[in-house]
Fold this sequence. Notes:
By secondary structure, this protein is of the alpha/beta class. Helix content is 41%, strand content 22%. The protein is built from nine helices and ten strands. Strand 6 (154-157), helix 5 and strand 7 (182-184) form a beta-alpha-beta unit. Helix 2 (58-71) runs antiparallel to helix 9 and helix 3 (84-92) packs parallel to helix 4 (105-113). The longest helix is centred in the first third of the chain and has 30 residues, at 2-31. Mean pLDDT is 87; it is low at 1-43.
Amino acid sequence: MRRAFLAGLVAVTVGLTGLAGCGDDSTSDTNNQPAAPTSGAAPGVTGTINVFAAASLTESFNKIGKDFEAANPGSKVTFNYAGSSALATQINQGAPADVFASAAPANMKTVTDAGNNSGDPTTFVKNQLVIAVPKGNPKGVKGLADLTKPGVKVALCAEQVPCGAAAKTALTAANVKLTPVTLEQDVKSALSKVTLGEVDAALVYRTDAKAAAANVEGVEFAESAGAINNYPIVVLKNAPNAAGAKAFVAYVLSDKGKAVLADAGFQAP
C-alpha cells in the first residue's frame, strides 16, 4: 500500500510539472514573442563591398562610404573611380564589382545590355556642367564663346565619357566650335588641368567645381541646362557581396545618402 501511494504521488508531480511547461509555451504563443537570438543583436551587413563609381562621385561617395561603414560595423566599402565608359568596360570584362554608379544612362546601358545587372538601375541624382576657371578668372570667361578667344587653352573630357558627351551637346547648342588642347578620360583629370595651371578653362560638373572651390571658380552658362546628365546606380549580377551591394544602394537612395549628395551640389532626379 505504501509503495502504491508513493508511485501515485510521483505521477501527480510529473504531471503538474508537464502542465506548467505547457502553460509557458501557451503564453509565448499568445504574446507572439520569438526567442531572442543568442548574440543579442540581429545580424548586419559585413564584408567588403566593391563600388565602381563615376569620378564625379568621389567626394560624395567617400563620405557615404564612411557613414555606411559606421552604420554597419564589420563592413568595408572600397571604390574604383574612373570615367563611366571605362568602368562599364571593366565590369563587362569580369571585374569583381558589387555596385555600378554611372554618370550617364548610356554607359549603364552598356552594362545592362550585356546582362550584368541585377534588377533595374535607379536614377539617384543629376548633374550639369560649368566652365571651371582659375580663381579670379584671369581670362574673363563669361560663356562658351569666350573659350574660342585667341590664347585661351581649354580641356574637355573625351566624347565617350559622360562629361565629354554633355560638353559636345552644350557646345553644339551654343554653335561654338573649339579645339581643346587635351581630351581627358574623366572629369577629375579635366579639372586637374585647371588647378595645375595647364589650361585656362575646362568643362566640368558643378559638383567638381564646388569640390575644388579653393582653387577654381565655376562659370555658369545657359546651354548647360540642355545637357544635364542623369546618374543611375545598380547592383551587379555577379556581385561577390550581393547583400552588401543591396544595402549600399539602399543607403545611397536613403534620406541620409540624399543629404550628402545634395550638399555636394547634385540635383534631385
